[in-house]
C-alpha cells in the first residue's frame, strides 16, 4: 500500500442548502415533474431529475431527462457528479425514481423501467420493509437492507460502484471483488452519453491511465508525477493504493479539514472531460490536448503510426478556406458517438489526411488544396508537416 499527496489552491465560501429529506423508503417516489429532491444531511449533495439541452440533435433528440447528482449550491462549476441513466435518457417528464419490493428503479411512460437494482440479482434474503436508499454527504447513494437470516445490515447497491465521469473522495477506481470501476467522459460538453475517453487504474504499474477508445493516451506515472506542478500549495489530496487477492484499486481523500464545506465540494472531485482533459476541482486542469499520439511529454503515450507521421508532427488549429468550394461535402454520417479526438485519430492514421474538424458530431477531413491565413474561413486542426503550403480541399466522410 502506498500513499501519495497532491496539493492545490482552494478558494470559496460556505453556502448551504436548506435541509431536506435524504432517504427514500419503500413506497416513496421521486418524480421528475416535481421539485422534490433528495439532499444529503449537510446540504452538500442533491439528487434529482433535470432536463439537459444538447445544443444539437443527438439520436433524433435535442434534449433528454436524467436522474443526476450535483453539488447543492455555490459552485460555479455545476457539472453533475453522477448520472443514473446517461446512455438511456428519458424522453419526457414521466420519470419517477421508485423503491419497492422489487428493488430500486426509474419508471417512465413509453419505455421499459431503468433498473438500478433488482432483488432478484442477490442470493441474500432481504426484509423489503426496511430497505432504504440514503444520499450521503460524500455523494454516494446507498441502498441498504437487512439480511433476514442473521439480521445484519448490508449494502445492496451504491452509486459509487457505477461512476460516470467524476472521481470523488472515497470512490474506487480499479477492481474490487470481481467488479471493475472506471470513469468515462461525456460525449460532448452538453451530451452526457458515454464518450471517447476512459480513465482507469493500472494495478500492475500503480498508475492512472486515460484511454482514447482502445489506445492509451496518458498516464499519471507511478508517483503521480504527471499531475504537474500544483501551486501554491494549500490543500492535500491523498491517493491510496489497495492491493490484495480480491481487490486492486486506488481511492483518495481530502486531508486538510479546516476548509469550509463549500471549498471541499468545489474542489473535491476529478472530472474526465469530454475532450479528455482532467479537471481537478474548479481551478486546475491537466491538458491532454497535447497528447496526439506523437508526443511523450508530461505522461503522453506515443502510438505506432504510419510512416508519413514523423517525430514533431502535431495538430495546430488554423483558419483555412478551401479553394474549390464545390468540393465541400457537409453530409454527416450515422455514428453519433465520435469526438474531435476520434476524428483526429482517424486522420492521423491516413497519410492522405492533412487536417480535421468536427461539425454536428461528424468528421470533416482536409484532403487537398486550401488557403490559410485568411480572415474568414473554417477552423481546422491541421497537421503541421507534409501539407501543401498554399492550397487545400476539405470534404466530410466517415472513412478515408
UniProtKB/TrEMBL annotation:
Species: Gossypium harknessii
Name of the protein this chain belongs to: Bulb-type lectin domain-containing protein
Range of residues in the leader sequence: 1-19
Bulb-type lectin domain segment(s): 23-156
Record key words, sorted: Disulfide bond, Glycoprotein, Signal
Gene3D superfamilies: Bulb-type lectin domain
Amino acid at each position: 500500500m502506498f500513499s501519495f499527496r497532491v496539493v492545490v489552491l482552494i478558494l470559496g465560501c460556505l453556502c448551504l442548502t436548506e435541509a431536506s429529506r435524504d432517504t427514500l423508503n419503500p413506497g416513496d417516489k421521486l418524480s421528475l415533474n416535481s421539485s422534490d429532491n433528495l439532499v444529503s444531511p449537510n446540504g452538500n449533495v442533491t439528487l434529482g431529475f433535470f432536463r439537459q439541452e444538447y445544443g444539437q440533435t443527438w439520436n433524433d433528440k435535442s434534449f433528454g431527462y436524467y436522474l443526476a447528482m450535483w453539488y447543492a449550491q455555490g459552485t460555479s462549476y455545476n457539472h453533475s457528479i453522477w448520472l443514473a441513466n446517461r446512455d438511456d435518457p428519458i424522453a419526457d417528464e414521466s420519470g419517477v425514481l421508485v423503491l419497492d419490493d422489487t428493488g430500486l428503479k426509474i419508471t417512465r411512460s413509453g419505455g421499459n423501467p431503468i433498473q438500478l437494482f433488482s432483488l432478484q440479482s442477490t442470493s441474500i434474503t432481504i426484509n423489503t420493509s426496511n430497505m432504504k436508499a440514503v444520499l450521503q454527504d460524500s455523494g454516494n447513494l446507498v441502498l441498504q437492507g437487512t439480511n433476514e437470516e442473521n439480521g445484519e445490515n448490508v449494502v445492496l447497491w451504491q452509486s459509487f460502484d457505477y461512476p460516470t465521469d467524476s472521481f470523488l473522495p472515497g470512490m474506487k477506481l480499479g477492481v474490487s471483488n470481481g467488479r471493475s470501476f472506471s470513469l468515462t467522459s461525456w460525449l460532448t460538453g452538453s451530451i452526457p452519453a458515454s464518450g471517447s475517453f476512459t480513465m482507469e487504474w493500472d494495478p500492475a504499474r500503480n498508475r492512472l491511465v486515460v484511454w482514447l477508445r482502445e489506445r492509451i493516451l496518458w498516464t499519471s506515472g507511478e508517483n503521480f508525477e504527471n499531475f504537474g506542478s500544483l501551486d501554491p500549495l494549500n490543500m492535500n489530496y491523498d491517493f491510496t493504493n489497495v492491493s490484495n487477492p480480491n481487490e486492486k484499486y486506488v481511492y483518495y481523500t481530502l486531508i486538510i479539514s479546516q476548509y469550509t464545506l463549500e471549498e471541499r465540494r468545489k474542489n473535491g472531485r476529478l472530472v474526465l472531460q469530454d475532450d479528455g482533459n482532467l479537471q481537478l476541482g474548479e481551478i486546475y486542469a491537466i491538458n491532454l490536448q497535447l497528447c496526439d499520439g506523437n508526443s511523450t511529454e508530461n505522461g503522453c503515450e506515443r502510438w505506432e503510426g504510419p510512416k508519413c507521421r514523423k517525430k514533431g508532427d502535431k495538430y495546430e488549429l488554423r483558419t483555412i478556406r478551401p479553394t474549390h468550394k464545390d468540393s465541400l461535402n457537409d453530409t454527416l454520417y450515422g455514428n453519433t458517438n465520435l469526438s474531435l479526438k476520434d476524428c483526429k485519430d482517424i486522420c492521423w492514421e491516413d497519410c492522405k489526411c492533412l487536417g480535421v474538424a468536427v461539425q454536428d458530431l461528424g468528421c470533416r477531413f482536409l484532403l487537398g488544396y486550401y488557403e490559410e491565413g485568411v480572415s474568414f474561413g473554417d477552423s481546422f486542426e491541421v497537421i503541421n508537416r507534409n501539407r501543401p503550403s498554399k492550397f487545400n480541399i476539405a470534404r466530410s466522410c466517415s472513412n478515408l
